Structure formats: structure tokens, C-alpha cells
User: What shape does this take?
Amino acid sequence: MDSLNGSPTANLPFEPTGEQLASIAWRTWIYTDTGPKRTRLGYLGAGEVVDAQGPALVNAGCPGGWYRINPRGFVCIGKGATTDLRHPVVVASRRRAERTRALPHVYAMSKPQAPHLYFKLPTRDEQQEVEGDYASDALAWLQHHRPTPDVARGDFLDIAPEAPAFFREVTQLTKPYGTKQGLRWRAHSGQASAESGFAVRESFEHEGRAWGLTTELDLIPLDKTRVVTPSAHRGVVLGPGEDLPVGLAEEGWVALYQRDGSGVMTSAGALPKRTLIKFTGDRIKRQGVHYWPTTDERFVTEVGLKILRPRSDFPSVAIGSRKWIDISLKHQTLVAYEGQKAVFVTLISSGAGGLGDPEKVPST
Assistant: This one.
């Protein structure tokens, strides 16, 4: 029990025993310890399941009992978490975030005629009553997005041929604690706003229409949305012997060159905007133009490039092989470090307010 009371081993990973707990709230907080001065480490999203270690520690801050979880932290059993993995929120959230993919969920944006938020799978008559004539648009959308032998769309939108049994059996989905409950009509709880965005756990066909289950456990007709295609952009890994600087193509196309036997630079294509380029040495100058040597034995002109240069100093956390990240809101870049060695470079997309006050404008 000492480990639950904040001993030095309290936040170390433990060997799983099969005991687990799950989040049944929109956001279940993970804490550093169980005492009155505990702080937040992060949170579990609705339906997330993690390894747990008991016995539960009951105190004034958690009548339901605290459980230690892997890899670190403590979660309170109550409105936000449960050890019952058969809870309706857990069962409905069976498809969880896939963090190895470009996006952890499928994301969709509402069209001007926004989707209704259904709390059960509606019949054709119920859909007709709520939305009017929907069938032709729904069928056209489904035919466009359904995978075909020559177009495999399953990388980001995998529409199952029918709804899972659980959704066919329930008369009303249980919403995660902390989400907007809304009023209840015959089959839905209102209509989303025209600017809504949705994280979709899974999608399937029902009554000749494609449906998505959102992370808030609403069922939405996907033909009322625009599905977001994941970006093809990837960061670059800096392996042993590789380091900053790294180039970033800021213009529409940045020219590539190759050097012939006499040292003359000749055109060798171009790089699209937002490409990250690793260099193999310092820049050179030919006829007044600066070029950087790339890893594929070509050269890229400095015109149109942003050069992400090595740091001149480091924060106190940059010791040994400790992992930390360096984010530039000005340049919209992220560099991951192990100690003072840069190991990964990528782009970010922060708030539209730039470096403004996040209390007043949409900045990060």
C-alpha cells in the first residue's frame, strides 16, 4: 500500500496482473499521487482501458478508491472510471485510438446541413421523419466512399458492411460522463452545429447509409459530413551521425540540382512546400547562389528554404539521454531531443492566434 501513498516507487511501471480499469467519462484525470496536493499527469479518454493495480485506496478525495495504473499515475474509481469492463460506455467504445496511424481516429467536419445526433440506430421511417428525403444523397455518399478493388480507402475510412451487434441491440446509447446530454426526441438528441467537428471511432452501414460513432457516443450519418483525409506529411528521423540543420521548403516548389563532373549545377526537379530535407554537410556557393547537399546526393537551393539550425544553448532538462521536445510557435516546428542530440524534426499546426494571448485569441 506504500506505493499508493506516494513512495518513490509509486509512479514506476508494474508487471500487469490482468487487473484493469476503464474511463467512462469524456475525460478521466490521471494524478501523480492520492494525497490532497496531487497534480494532474494527463487523462484517459472515454472507453480507454489500462492496466491497474489494487487494492483500492479509499480516502476523502476518492470514496470509490484509487488505483495505480501503468505506466504511471493514479485514477479514482467513480463517475469517471470503473473496473467493470462490461460498462456500456466501454463496450460501445471498443474501437479505440490507434496512435501509430497518421490520425488516431477518423475525423469529419459538418456540412452546412449538419448531422443529427442519434442515440440509437434509427429505422428508415425514423430517419425520414427527422430529415425528410435523405436516401439519394446518402446512397451517393456511400458509393463514393465505399472501398473498391482499385481504390482502397480503408487506410482512413473503414466502413463495415453492418453495425456491430451491440448497436443493433441497445435502445439508447449511454453517453460518457461529462458530455452534453441534450434533449431526447424519438431517436435523436438534436442537430449538431454547422461548424462541428467529429472524431469517429468506427463506421458501418445501416439501412443503406454510412454511420459513424463519435467519441462522445453519438451516431451520425456520415453523408452530412466531410471526412478529413490524413496528411501525407512525415517528419524526418535524425540517426547516428546526423544532426541539425534541417531544411524546410517554405515556397510552393524549391529547386533541386545535381552537380556534373565539371562541377556545374543542373536542374534535378523540385521539392513541394513543407518538405523537410536532411543535409549531409555545410552549404556551398556557386555563381552567387547557396546550395545545401542532401542525403540523395543532390543539392537544394537556399532560396525558398527555412533552415532549422542547431541550438546555441540548452535548457536544464537536456542532460544524458533524457527525452524532451523543443516547439517553435513562430516557425511552427517541433524538434525531439534525447539529451542534446536532435533525433526527430517535424512540423506542427498550432492555434490560429500565433503568439497572441490564448485568453483573448485562438493561440496555443
